[in-house]
């Protein structure tokens, strides 16, 4: 197996902006673990049976997350509620002194398993470095109070062509109904960095895998909820202002760098019929990690058979953080080509996504 490298990133951002550095840094990991219940037989035909085995994959996940990378903040997707309660929550607290928060998705109509086998997202944080302040969560189909009349009319009038797993059209429905029918979630954890007393809000999500319009609205929902979380965080905190809060937004966005979701998060206006969508939280988020890395460092972050691409992100504002180091991903593509393998997981990689690990330096 090719060894992935934790590589330093150049100082071009600091040189350009002349921003002072606090010298404090944190490591942050985002990782889609691939739920054992999403190992669809029709998709993962290329994976040998022994590498589909959950106990085998779990041992590799434990090695990567707890030993190899062990980031200060870990944002994990496709973690089942059963696995969170039965292993990750207690193990991370008792063996590592990590706190954690978690939210599971609601089971869809087709779900035949128990509710605790449903997946969700979790955030784990090093209590030696951070003090937990609060946790908030949202179901991304709960639009009440987050969209105005014009926006709701847009959601009702916009028609989505629904497709099956092969991408073939099967029906049509309004964007509003499609949004209501999805079960994605987002988690918000507010922390205080003990060394610098900096306030953080860490967000973890896993957007729906199809339909740009759906993903864009899910992202807007997260941003509007984030505004409320920041406002709540500052209540009763003497001397704390909006400008002192730093945001880290991580997760599997199921969106490529040229997608409407990424354009929206960067602060660009995304036009839809007579509506222009602009990220209301652009003063807190305008930058993602791949803007500061060479294109040669990552070919994909998801290697799920025919579905390959850069889908896993870490976002922040470039006046708050500098990307100091990043775990490169190109070695995985090289390995698959050399081994003549179609995708992940395989013998050495437990998920169809690769873990994205960064070191971020705080800017004063």
UniProtKB/TrEMBL annotation:
Cross-referenced InterPro entries: CCR4/nocturin_mRNA_transcr, Endo/exonu/phosph_ase_sf, Endo/exonuclease/phosphatase
Originating organism: Lachancea meyersii CBS 8951
Protein name as it appears in the record: LAME_0B02366g1_1
Domain of life according to the entry: Eukaryota
PANTHER family in the record: CARBON CATABOLITE REPRESSOR PROTEIN 4 (PTHR12121), RNA EXONUCLEASE NGL1 (PTHR12121:SF11)
Alphabetical list of Pfam families matching this protein: Exo_endo_phos
Residue ranges occupied by any Endonuclease/exonuclease/phosphatase domain in the UniProt entry: 29-353
UniProt GO MF annotations: 3'-5'-RNA exonuclease activity
């Amino acid at each position: 197996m090719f060894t992935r490298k934790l590589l330093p990133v150049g100082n071009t951002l600091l040189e350009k902006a002349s921003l002072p550095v606090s010298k404090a840094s944190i490591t942050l990991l985002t990782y889609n673990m691939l739920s054992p219940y999403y190992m669809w037989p029709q998709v993962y035909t290329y994976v040998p049976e022994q590498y589909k085995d959950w106990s085998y994959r779990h041992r590799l996940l434990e090695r990567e997350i707890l030993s190899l990378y062990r980031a200060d903040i870990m944002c994990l997707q496709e973690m089942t509620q059963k696995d969170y309660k039965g292993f990750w929550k207690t193990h991370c607290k008792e063996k590592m002194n990590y706190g954690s928060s978690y939210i599971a998705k609601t089971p869809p109509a087709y779900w035949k398993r128990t509710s605790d086998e449903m997946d969700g997202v979790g955030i784990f944080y090093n209590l030696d470095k951070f003090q937990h302040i609060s946790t908030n969560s949202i179901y991304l189909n709960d639009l009440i109070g987050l969209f105005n009349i014009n926006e709701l009319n847009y959601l009702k009038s916009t028609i989505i062509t629904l497709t099956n797993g092969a991408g073939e059209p099967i029906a049509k429905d309004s964007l509003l109904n499609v949004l209501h029918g999805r079960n994605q979630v987002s988690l918000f954890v507010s922390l205080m960095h003990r060394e610098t007393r900096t306030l953080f809000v860490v967000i973890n999500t896993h957007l729906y895998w199809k339909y740009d319009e759906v993903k864009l609205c899910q992202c807007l929902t997260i941003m509007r909820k984030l505004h409320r979380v920041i406002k709540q965080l500052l209540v009763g905190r003497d001397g704390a202002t909006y400008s002192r809060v730093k945001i880290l937004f991580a997760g599997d966005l199921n969106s490529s760098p040229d997608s409407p979701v990424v354009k929206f998060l960067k602060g660009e206006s995304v036009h839809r019929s007579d509506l222009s969508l602009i990220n209301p939280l652009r003063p807190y988020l305008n930058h993602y990690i791949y803007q500061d890395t060479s294109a040669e460092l990552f070919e994909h972050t998801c290697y799920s058979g025919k579905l390959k691409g850069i889908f896993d992100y870490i976002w922040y504002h470039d006046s708050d953080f500098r990307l100091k180091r990043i775990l490169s991903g190109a070695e995985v593509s090289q390995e698959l080509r050399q081994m003549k393998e179609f995708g992940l997981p395989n013998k050495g990689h437990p998920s169809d996504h690769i873990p994205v690990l960064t070191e971020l330096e705080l800017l004063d």
